[in-house]
Amino acid sequence: MKLHSSPTLIDYTLADGRNVPVSPVNRPGGTEKIVEYMPVWGYYTGTKVTAAEVVLVETGRPTCYRVVEVHPPSGPRRGSSIPGNGLVLSALPGETADSGGPLLAHFRVGDLVTRHERTPAEADQRGNDGGTSRPAAEQGLNRAEDSIRTAEASLDRAREEYANVPFREADSRLSSARERLELARRLAAASPAESVHCSRQAEAWALEGYCLSLPSRTAEARGVWYRPVERNAEEVGVTLDRMAASGLNELYLETFFQGYTIFPSRTACAHGIAGQNPVFAGWDPLDVFVKEAAKRGIAVHAWINGYMVGIDPSGGPILRIHPEWAAVPRDSVGRDQPAPDPGTGYFWMDIVNPEPRGYLIGLMKEMVGRYGAAGVNLDYMRFPSDGFSYSRYVRSAYAEEIGTDPYDLDADTDPAGWEHWTAWLRQAENEGMKAVYRELKALAPQTVISAAPEPGPEADRIGEWAEVVDVVIPQAYFAESDRVRESVKEHKGKLAEGCLIYSGLYPLYIHLDAFSTVTQLFAARDLDQGASLFSFGQAGRPHVKALRQGPWREDAVSPGLHPIEAVSRLIAELVRDLREVYLPRGAASDRTGGALLAAIEAFTAEYDSLREAASGPVMAPDAHDRLLGCLGGVHRAVASGKAEGGLHPAAERRLQDQLRYAEDLISYSRKKGIW
């Protein structure tokens, strides 16, 4: 189950034995192509009236689908509805009279069909008649064997580390994988096509076994970034159902992008700016997302694009009305109209100018105050490069304070002056972040302020912003897990004590498979308190299933939003591990187990007492010290068990990791005032 970077080719084996090739997932083809539309495409295929389409749903067996609808070319203009548990095959219109014929001639309602994915190497090994050759069958066997070995190794590791995972279920999946692999071997010579099919099934069962072998934390952030495309409340519900099915608990909903809000903004209207992105006219997506997500146990954070306001040549909805708010590139000084940054192509608002800064904060206060967003996720909260901007406001402010027009400065001829100028801009950016934090915390103290720094200027800035953000989600956007870990570790080293860090990952965006997506979540799991995936719009059904079977199997409390409850959940997890794993398997002696349970009981009693006496989420002023004191008792029980030989080293390490994690969350709660 290695990372296969080759493009995927797809075909279907129909009930009559025929093989039908289709274009890669969600990539529209040209004339006379058959295209596959997954749920990530949207709610409808959107194809024209001339397209013939077949609707398939999952059967519960890997790679096997049932035909539930067959639409002739006279179907609805918006195309077929894409089922959340299936897909649509669409024959795009061609120049011949029988375009779409293969769909109509060979698919029948009720038929079972099998979906195959192949690499180009496998495709090259198909016979001239479209059949599958022996080398392709052997390659399929090798892939299945590799998948099974990977899953077996993961399951062995879970046993060695005394992980609390569903071993019986994982063993059952691997048993099914081995059975299909054995059948594939027997068929390889006489029926290569059937052999490849069985190998694919073995891979699918092995993936399930692998996912079930992975530990699932009950205190972690499980987030996704998402740009809304829904057209009504019903479609929002479908999207959120898919998100909930994956096990996530935080949604970073893109709420301000291209200069527009997705909600009808009073702040925008008060400034003469378009009150809402016209795409969402007539309804309020933010209101629906917040309310419907809450019903599913998902907290919504308003993800905003900060001072970057899009690529519209006119400057977009904000700068068209307020061109004086524009940040100005050096080579655009003197122009009457806003100009984009030549490096990024984006238009930016001026961070130094208090008017656009106040406008942006006003939008955020609406998101938190009017809609009850659990947090604000900040992106593009800086200028795109050093020495930017040269707006009239900036030049005047700098000249008044320093006595020099920054436009006259040159990095080569006056390095000291240039360094002072860029430091001044940097300080303005930092002041902008402080203002956001101050204003939002005054409005709603429990609001979580997070930043998602990308490599470059934002990553370098994160140490300076540690005091004015609660959670950092570095964009560790790499295909290789070791590079993900390096990035998260580097960012964590810049943070002050009391900040949390989630790994920002993008396996979905670059179309990595379900195995690679799940594996990336473990790249820095000993360093982070959760992860966020970019972006859910690219999540397929296999990804959702793998996440829920694997790392997001158990329900989890978000440590950023509810740190003290997360501590309680960690302690409950520790008790469960003791009773279900350590004691039954001899990783903890009865004496050590009894001492640990007694110490944990004292913690639980203290926690319950504090929670009962609390007014809302906020506990007594001495709550942190009291909880830390109780954790100290658990630490002593662990140390005593280790000294007496009553704890297996793997169990002792796991217990210590859980206790350190709990202490980090208490430190975060104390420093940030979030309960």
UniProtKB/TrEMBL annotation:
<keyword id="KW-0732">Signal</keyword>
<dbReference type="Pfam" id="PF02638">
    <property type="entry name" value="GHL10"/>
</dbReference>
<feature type="compositionally biased region" description="Basic and acidic residues">
    <location>
        <begin position="118"/>
        <end position="127"/>
    </location>
</feature>
<feature type="region of interest" description="Disordered">
    <location>
        <begin position="118"/>
        <end position="148"/>
    </location>
</feature>
<dbReference type="InterPro" id="IPR052177">
    <property type="entry name" value="Divisome_Glycosyl_Hydrolase"/>
</dbReference>
<feature type="domain" description="Glycosyl hydrolase-like 10">
    <location>
        <begin position="222"/>
        <end position="480"/>
    </location>
</feature>
<protein>
    <submittedName>
        <fullName>Family 10 glycosylhydrolase</fullName>
    </submittedName>
</protein>
<dbReference type="InterPro" id="IPR003790">
    <property type="entry name" value="GHL10"/>
</dbReference>
<dbReference type="InterPro" id="IPR017853">
    <property type="entry name" value="GH"/>
</dbReference>
